[in-house]
Design goal:
The protein is an alpha+beta fold. It has one domain: Beta-Lactamase. Helix content is 45%, strand content 20%. It contains four helices and five strands; from the N terminus they run αββαβββαα. It has a five-stranded antiparallel sheet with strand order 2-1-5-4-3, with helices on both faces. A hairpin with a 5-residue loop joins strand 4 and strand 5. Helix 1 runs antiparallel to helix 3. It is globular, with a radius of gyration of 15 Å.
Length: 151
Amino acid sequence: MTDFDSARPTPACPAVSQAAKNIRWLLDEFLGTVGGVADAVVVSSDGLLLADSRAGVRSDELSAIVSALTSLAAGVARVLEYGGVRQTMVTMDEGHLVVMAISDGSCLGVYATLSCELGVLAYQMALLVERAGHALTPQVRSELHRAMAVR
C-alpha cells in the first residue's frame, strides 16, 4: 500500500484528494495499456517528482534525468528559435526515454524497451498528457509534491 492508497492520513502519509489520486491512476493505467513501458513519471516545471507509476523503482533518478533533459531541450529550442519543445526522445541500446510537455509546464517522462511501438507510445502519451494537463491544478501539484516528499 502506498501513500496514495491510504484511507486515513497520518503525519508520514498525508491525505490527498481524489484528483491527486487520479494522476497516479492515469499513470498506472498507461503502464498497463502500452506494451514495453517500464516506468513513467510526472515531473513539475521546477524538477520535482509529482507522481510515478507503481513500477517506479528508479523514480527519483528518472525524474532528475527528465528534468535535466527538459531543460536542455528548452535551451536548444531557444537557441534555434523553433518554438517550444513538445517531445524529446533519447534512444539507447536497450530502450527509449520519451519526454512530453504537459500544459502547466510539468512533463511526462516514460522509459520503454526497444520492443515498444513508438507510434503507439507517442499516441498514448499524448492522451495521458491531455488528461493530466486538465487535472494538474496548482492545488493538485502541491498535494502530489507533499505526498511524494514523505515516501
